[in-house]
Design goal:
262 residues; alpha+beta; 3 domains; 6-stranded antiparallel β-sheet; 7 helices; elongated; THAP-type domain-containing protein
Length: 262
Amino acid sequence: MWEQRLELAPGTFRPDSQLCELHFDPSQICRDYVHLIGGKEVRIPRGRATLLPDTLPLAPPKQAQHDEGPNLKRLRSEEDLVPVDQNVDRLSALRLPSKYWSCVRCLNIEGAVFATSTFSPATADLVTEKMVVVQWADSEKQEAVVCETILRGRRLGDAVVGDLGSLQQRLCEVDAMPLCIGVGGVGYVLEQLGGRLTAHLERSLVLHGETYFSQACTATVETAGASCAPCKQARKAVLTKKSALLRKNFLVTYVNNCGDAK
């Protein structure tokens, strides 16, 4: 029934296929649980919107009929120039996982970048934390997009091809991923090391925003507020170096005190 409604070829939809909510009338989308308590209607937001029973997708808009001739050719040439902006607008219209996500248009890709960012007061820069790069796929399948996930500059897995529904699901998955908290802030790390990194730590650490991370950081962790194994190892190296500096300073102080006593 949906395939006929959308004028698609039979077999286009599979049991696991998803359809963007833009294909449905907003009045047919249920976003809340509705209860009557004390004679008053109470609405509780659903974790995930659902469709009302017997809902059908909107029929695609009918193209105006024109006689074959120069005007039709001009119309077709104009349509060839429009899809990129229309497609980007469809990406911009997606419902994002939270208010901290943004949809950014880029000059060099036919798509968009969805990202979360933090502001670094020290450098007056926006620092990207999570990013999903979306480009329209060269495919006959409607709404086919290629998604690439990047966390703190690290590519996570291979690019995935799907439709707008799977893109929205991917954004929710990325939003739920806990990120590694790293080795420590710049101030903390430098304080442990007496104000500067050792040559070894300069090679093994990378600065992202105002936090040091291991070069081998996995970006994601199983528990929020935790560090990945490489960053834990790097923090251990920082504290080991701190202990060595304290021992060295103690010996220097001891020797100086002995000299003064003589």
